[in-house]
Amino acid sequence: MLFSKDRIGGFLLLIFCITYAILSQQIVLLPIQAKAAFTARTLPEVLSVLGIILSVLVILFPGSSGRPKLAGYKWFTAVLFLALMSAYGFSVRPLGFLLSTSLFLIGGFALLGERSPIKLLAVALPLVVGFWLLMTQGLDVFIEPLPWFLKG
């Protein structure tokens, strides 16, 4: 069969990996990195090549020949998650990491069926604050914590 679910997945993965490989070439290198063995491009290049190889193998040797089934999935929930992820991407800069990520996690948990506000807050807030502390204090990566109108 020409279009099995494995082959469709392989084609999608191939498109993603080729796009990733092309975009990885746009990573700007410093002049001192021109002849270095390991640069900011090395890992993306290796990952894209491995992904291309694996996706071609999946296309050539699919594990199953069954037709893809579209019924029985929660497509509306998937579309809502895509909208939520897009809203998160647009809200990180204006709302800051702590607020936008907390709202994203609370919304995602609610979409998955959690209805208790106490559980939503008890899981999302410590997770976001802990990750922010790890990144800013442990790894010294600056992440804007709050929106501009809440800063003092």
Give a verbal description of the structure:
There is one protein chain. By secondary structure, the protein is mainly α. It is 64% helix and 0% strand. It is built from 5 helices and no strands. Helix 3 packs antiparallel against helix 4 and helix 4 packs antiparallel against helix 5. The termini are far apart. The mean pLDDT is 88.
How is the topology of this model organized?
Blueprint lengths: L4 H20 L17 H19 L14 H21 L1 H15 L5 H22 L14
Shape: flat
Strand content: under 5%
Low-pLDDT windows of residues: none
How is the main sheet built?
Answer: none
Number of strand elements: 0
Tell me the domain tally.
2
Helix percentage: 55-70%
Task: Report how far apart the termini are.
Answer: 63 Å
- Secondary-structure element order, N to C: HHHHH
Overall SS class: mainly alpha
Number of helices: 5
Mean pLDDT: 88
Radius of gyration: 21 Å
Record keyword descriptors for this entry.
single chain, 152 residues, flat
Briefly, what is this?
With 152 residues, the protein is mostly helical. It is 64% helix and 0% strand.
